[in-house]
């Protein structure tokens, strides 16, 4: 009997090891920046785990953008570059296992790097938006606003009674975050939350990393979708 139990536990251990190894390999199969992004931005370099764009002169505010699941931070470099030209310092973190929920506290790191910046907006794409919402919910005094790109908060992060500006940008052809998901998320957001729909946009074009499994085809160029994202954020954050 003892010998039987020994082999049973060994088999279970090996199975768990195989599952963990498979999960790790899956997390490393990332979405890399597309060739289109390389055409549009200056050279992108990550430093100390961050992709950072700084404006010329004094920053009027800061933005922390959490990347989507398995999407490399560099894939959001166009958004970051455009926002920096509008006067924002922008940081996109590398997160453990390329999954934003493993690095929820990263925004604090960015804030500590730029202590002179008094106003911070946090947001994210897809799973990154869930992580951003988690950070904002636990750090309301440090966050000036929360934004979602094809995303919404997890059920445990209810902002409906919070005095926090919220922007939700979603896309008509998003195959991973549907308009029904966005509608349902309204119950977790303040009554004055701003919703902006990108006609013909899809999930993958919230970044620049090419097609994504499960997504629908976009009906507009990726640069046009990205420019709408930049403009919608700037218009929302300006008041």
UniProtKB/TrEMBL annotation:
InterPro entries the UniProt entry points to: AB_hydrolase_5, AB_hydrolase_fold
Entry keyword set: Hydrolase, Membrane, Transmembrane, Transmembrane helix
Annotated Alpha/beta hydrolase fold-5 domain residues: 62-226
Pfam family, one: Abhydrolase_5
Record-annotated membrane-spanning stretches: 7-26
One example GO MF annotation: hydrolase activity
Protein name per the record: Alpha/beta hydrolase
Protein's organism: Rossellomorea oryzaecorticis
Lineage: Bacteria, Bacillati, Bacillota, Bacilli, Bacillales
